[in-house]
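User: My collaborator sent over this chain with a note saying "see what the structure looks like." That's all I know about it. Can you take a look?
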Amino acid sequence: MPLEIIVALVAVATVALLIILIRTHGNLRSLRTKYAAIINIDAEVQKRTGERDTIVKDTEKLRTDYQDKRRVFDRLKSEVALYEDKMVFIEQGIYEPHFDFTDPEEFKEEIKSVRAEQKAMVKNKTAVTCDIEWHVGGSKAQGRVMTGRNIRLTLRAFNGECDVAIANVRWNNVVAMEKRIRRAAEQIDKLNKSNQVVIEKAYVDLKIKELRLTHEYRERQQEEKEHRREQARLEREEKKLIEEAKAAEREEERYRKLLKKAQAEAQKDAENAELQERIAELEHSLEEASSKTERAKSMAEQTRVGHVYVISNIGSFGEKVVKIGMTRRLNPDDRVKELGDASVPFIFDTHAMIYTDDAPAMETELHRRFHTRRVNAVNMRKEFFRADLEEVATAIRELDPNATFVMNAEAREFMETLAIQERQGQTLEAEVEADFPLSI
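Assistant: Without extra context I'll predict from the sequence alone. Here is the result:
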């Protein structure tokens, strides 16, 4: 082969090799750039570790800051609650009575006595004190003037806080108002720390006592109001009994006159069958009227005769809630109808209506047996209990074996309402499905 051809082939091969090397180098450089993180794994691990450590530190700092701020928030929330009307009183505690006065007038007299003690402490300068004798411009007299002004300002500020708390105390904030008064004393003392003016504990305690007396006085007034309302209801029942007894007497007298007239006519026409039948009906009506009159008179004269009832209203109060009460009405169903008036959405169902010579005793015994089941644990006049009908029926039969007890609650209006609501729900569901089918 000629030398020129060999040289040419070598040159071509060399050029091809260079092209391959250049391309390979370029690919390698591209691959190295692309997978640099994987190739240099130690550097990447170190980098990520540093980022992680930074995140952990930031997270711990955030948690610490949050805990600090949460403590501040909880403290502020607790302080604000003392001045917030719409607070949950359970968070502040349940008030326990401190006085055993039975007459509201006793509370009023004790409040006057406590206020007199407060005035005496202020007059004797023992309500707010300063143990140091200040000098102003080297003058003791000016120091006493300054101290007197600080004491008066302290009294005005503290008494103002107490007056607001006492004026606004209610059943759901009385404990919070106590804390509010004590907190006010602490804050004012803190502000007076530099001049050493202090509200004496005895004076703070008198303010707390006035607050408690005022609260219990108002509660007793409310109890008296409810008691008078109950007494008025009982008096209305007594009056109703007397009216029913008189009405029964009038009805009996009317039947007696009708019977006497029919008997006089029968003497003239003894063969009249219709007249004889009329006389029999009148005699039966007169007998019933006489029995009704005797029962009405008995209930009017004997204050313990009456009916004990057990009723429920599942539409209004749910299942397993019964009301156990008593009435002295001649027609006890009138009392049940009265309870099911417009104040509740549905009427009551009667499970038992027991006539007894000592209705208060039977009612009291049933209340005693189910005392721990009371729906309202505060107001004993609210005679609702959480109990199964079987339990109540057993208790009643132990007291009166002949008592009749109906286990099922008809709850007609409630059941019909549920049926209507169910139909309305089905209609609405059909409308929604028509607009938005399950599939397309």
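A starting point for your reply to your collaborator: Residues 169 and 265 are 78 Å apart (CA to CA).
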